[in-house]
Amino acid sequence: MENQRTLLYITFFFILFLIWQAWEEDYGSKPVPVASTTETRTSSGIPMAAEKINDTPRAAMPAAVPQAQTMPASRKAIRVVTDLMDVAIDTKGGSIHKLDLRKYPTSAEDDRPFELFSDKDSQFHVAQSGLISANSAAPNHHAVYHAAKDEYRLAEGENDLKVQMVWQDQDTTVTKVFTFHRDSYVIDVEHFVQSRSDWTGSQYRQLARSATDSRGESAFIYTYTGGVVFNDEIKYEKVDFDDMADKNHMREIGLGNDMLGGWVAMIQHYFLSAWIPDQQELNLAYSSNPSNNRYILGLRSPAMTVKAGEQGRFHSQLVVGPKLQHRLEAIAPGLELTVDYGILTILAKPLYWVLEMYHGVFNNWGWAIIFLTLTVKLIFYKLSEASYRSMAKMRKVAPKMQAMKERYGDDRQRMSQAMMKMYKEEKINPLGGCLPILVQMPVFIALYWVLLESVEMRNAPFALWITNLSVQDPYYILPLLMGASMFIQQKLNPAPMDPMQQKIFQIMPIMFTVFFLFFPAGLVLYWVVNNTLSIAQQWVITKRIENS
């Protein structure tokens, strides 16, 4: 019964893996959130409480001069509406402090656009940018700009929309320009600098957010929320909120020549925000934790000198929206890795490609999951056949093994010798039922992550009562079917001789059913289809062996 024991261990450790993920999400070490306070807001509804936070990076040179602000412009929110986004830009610093994704409802039941950026304490997530200088006046994200209009809309027939804001002091004028594009989640951000005297300074871009926003997350599903840094040298590196709280991180990204410039991002389940610098520019990536529940990840450019009477230009791209892999691949190298499949990415990517191909055929993600599962089962048909053939042989000789147990009692040595002799006579490999399953496990786990991470599953309907594959089955029918399929599979397998193992096997379908009650319907659909196909294959092979 070694194969049964190994299968038991595999299943047990898989359950522990899922439970650990849920525990890490709910009870893992997290920074203590800041206590709720009453915010002071301007007449335009912009919070003022964050003004005292030291959240601006240092200039590239030793000592920074005070940032002059001679323009007494009033602070307000500028609304920008495109085909994909509804954005609010604060004239204080030109920070994007509110952003709704118009094509992505909050949930299947709530058709309001999903709010990716927010200035609320518990959901704080904003994009900030500015200029810093050690010897010249420069507007950081606390300086107030002037905008000609209060609202901008991308008109029909137009592909681009520019929003221009101006800051100036006695010698220097800075024009900040946001360029929005039709059918794009990329925003071009530019700073144009003109000065009567030589001006030297750097651009910084940063993402600031809280760690307490878990809207739409299942307590039983863990997905990473936090910072990510990428460049050609380090590739994909996570900087989570605990890391930011422990120390301020500094890392150069972008080495010029043929090296990639990299990027920084804040990611969460299904969505991301990322700053992409010019790819041949050497930047300093940094993180900070200016208050208990404020975490910052940003980039600072090298210093640029603008001669008197000339114009200098800083340029970056801000990516905000869903983690759509093909779009991310086209924006910057490695950005598609924010669809976080973990160490099994090499397996998950082709699985996603097949899933997407089937969706193109059926225009339904539920049917795509079913046919992807069928495809995986066909690929591993021979391995599964070897496993089920071994199990069927073990089931056939189960009465002989029970007789041996009664004959030899507690004499484990003689029992083991008799079993090995029987295995040899019956041509049974005791590990034959386990090794094929071990080979397939990485593929099954990769498929699990594909279904969990793909934003296409979000709010995607299937059929009948399943109107959203990314949330739990409202009537728990799929989890019950999954539990029933596990029970049937157990009946097809040889029963373990050890009474303790028998009891554990009996309660496993119940445990899995309870656990899967809270899993997204798309994942449970995969397990139901996989188990059903396995039952059909195993039943045929078992009957064939028993009748031989």
Q: What is the number of strand segments?
A: 20
Q: What is the CATH fold-level name of the largest domain?
A: Beta-galactosidase, Chain A, domain 5
Q: Sheet bearing the most strands, described?
A: 9 strands, antiparallel
Shape: elongated
Q: How many distinct domains?
A: 2
The CATH architecture name of the largest domain reads: Distorted Sandwich
Low-confidence stretches: 1-9, 19-53, 61-72
Total DSSP helices: 12
Strand order of the largest sheet: 6-8-9-10-20-16-15-12-13
Indicate the radius of gyration in whole angstroms.
29 Å
Q: How far apart are the first and last residues' alpha carbons, in Å?
A: 22 Å
CATH class bucket of the largest domain: Mainly Beta
Helix-strand makeup class: alpha+beta
Helix percentage range: 25-40%
Describe the structure.
- The chain is of the alpha+beta class and 548 residues long.
- It folds into two domains: 2-24 and 349-546, no CATH class; 31-340, Distorted Sandwich (Beta-galactosidase, Chain A, domain 5).
- 35% of the residues lie in helices and 25% in strands.
- It is built from twelve helices and 20 strands.
- A nine-stranded antiparallel β-sheet has the order 6-8-9-10-20-16-15-12-13.
- A hairpin with a 4-residue loop joins β9 and β10.
- It is elongated and about 100 Å long.
